[in-house]
Design brief:
It contains two helices and five strands. By secondary structure, the protein is an alpha+beta fold.
Length: 143
């Protein structure tokens, strides 16, 4: 999976407190970077999303750490795409990169599963048709 497979990315602003004692970005901070990117991705794909009405929970996240990320790395970006749509859940894929062009380095790959919920009953619900259509159109999914 390379960055050319993604239609969306956002730049990440690293902070000094993202680093651990080894001088690289702490592994837990990667989850925050993916959360930031996920939020911007959803706002780009579904700009009219009503967060008071339609909500999802993070059900699972997996991260493959490939290369350490340091504060001195430039042009840090997270790429996001929809990998799979189920009835009540959807899977997003992420790439965390630095550099540009020939010098692009992949630091981590990740997937997360989001499950749609009803905020009142706290039960799972189907992905709204408008959200499904927007995700399919944006990422060119087959279903």
């Amino acid at each position: 999976m390379g960055k050319h497979h993604f239609n969306f990315h956002t730049t990440i602003q690293m902070r000094w407190n993202d680093l651990d004692a080894l001088g690289h970005v702490n592994n837990a901070t990667y989850l925050t970077y993916f959360e930031i990117a996920r939020s911007y991705f959803i706002m780009e794909v579904c700009p009219d999303w009503d967060w008071q009405k339609d909500m999802f929970l993070l059900a699972n996240i997996n991260v493959d750490f490939i290369h350490e990320l340091r504060l001195t790395d430039k042009h840090v970006k997270v790429y996001v795409r929809t990998a799979h749509l189920g009835n009540k859940s959807f899977v997003l894929e992420y790439l965390l990169t630095s550099g540009e062009g020939e010098t692009t380095k992949i630091h981590a790959k990740s997937t997360s599963t989001q499950v749609m919920i009803d905020l009142i009953t706290k039960s799972t619900v189907s992905i709204p048709q408008w959200a499904r259509a927007a995700l399919i159109a944006f990422d060119g999914l087959d279903k």
